[in-house]
């Protein structure tokens, strides 16, 4: 079985998220999503509209997602790859090169994000600012 992992906050779940998850799932047989916890988001100076449990529940209802695990810190990626026997690590192209250090553990792929949609754009249009 080929296992794929991706990471993110997945706040205000939108079709860009779904498209990223669909494409990531096509790269393997089992998709793991490491979801940023509320505590980790605070460390990143991000504020989610939905709390961790709500975001987790929404992701678990997406048919492309097989497992949702908490992302507690930047450093856990190496241990997650070993723990879940990951073959492919997938992130959006805006992270290009940032996770190349994982290439000695698994395949690292950066995929293009869906144009015209992002959580930042939604928040800006709704709230009149680009709050993280």
TrEMBL record:
<keyword id="KW-0548">Nucleotidyltransferase</keyword>
<keyword id="KW-0808">Transferase</keyword>
<dbReference type="GO" id="GO:0005737">
    <property type="term" value="C:cytoplasm"/>
</dbReference>
<dbReference type="InterPro" id="IPR006409">
    <property type="entry name" value="G3P_cytidylTrfase"/>
</dbReference>
<dbReference type="InterPro" id="IPR014729">
    <property type="entry name" value="Rossmann-like_a/b/a_fold"/>
</dbReference>
<protein>
    <recommendedName>
        <fullName>Glycerol-3-phosphate cytidylyltransferase</fullName>
        <ecNumber>2.7.7.39</ecNumber>
    </recommendedName>
</protein>
<dbReference type="GO" id="GO:0019350">
    <property type="term" value="P:teichoic acid biosynthetic process"/>
</dbReference>
<dbReference type="InterPro" id="IPR004821">
    <property type="entry name" value="Cyt_trans-like"/>
</dbReference>
<feature type="domain" description="Cytidyltransferase-like">
    <location>
        <begin position="5"/>
        <end position="124"/>
    </location>
</feature>
<dbReference type="GO" id="GO:0047348">
    <property type="term" value="F:glycerol-3-phosphate cytidylyltransferase activity"/>
</dbReference>
<dbReference type="InterPro" id="IPR050385">
    <property type="entry name" value="Archaeal_FAD_synthase"/>
</dbReference>
<dbReference type="GO" id="GO:0046872">
    <property type="term" value="F:metal ion binding"/>
</dbReference>
<dbReference type="Pfam" id="PF01467">
    <property type="entry name" value="CTP_transf_like"/>
</dbReference>
């Amino acid at each position: 079985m080929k296992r794929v992992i991706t990471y993110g906050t997945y706040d205000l779940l939108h079709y860009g998220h779904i498209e990223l998850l669909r494409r990531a799932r096509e790269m393997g047989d089992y998709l793991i999503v490491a979801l940023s916890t509320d505590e980790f988001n605070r460390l990143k100076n991000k504020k989610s509209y939905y709390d961790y449990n709500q975001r987790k529940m929404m992701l678990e209802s997406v048919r492309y997602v097989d497992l949702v695990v908490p992302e507690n810190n930047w450093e856990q990626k190496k241990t997650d790859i070993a723990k879940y026997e990951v073959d492919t690590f997938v992130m959006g192209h805006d992270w290009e090169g940032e996770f190349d250090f994982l290439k000695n553990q698994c395949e690292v792929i950066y995929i293009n994000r869906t144009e015209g949609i992002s959580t930042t754009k939604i928040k800006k249009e709704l709230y009149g600012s680009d709050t993280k």
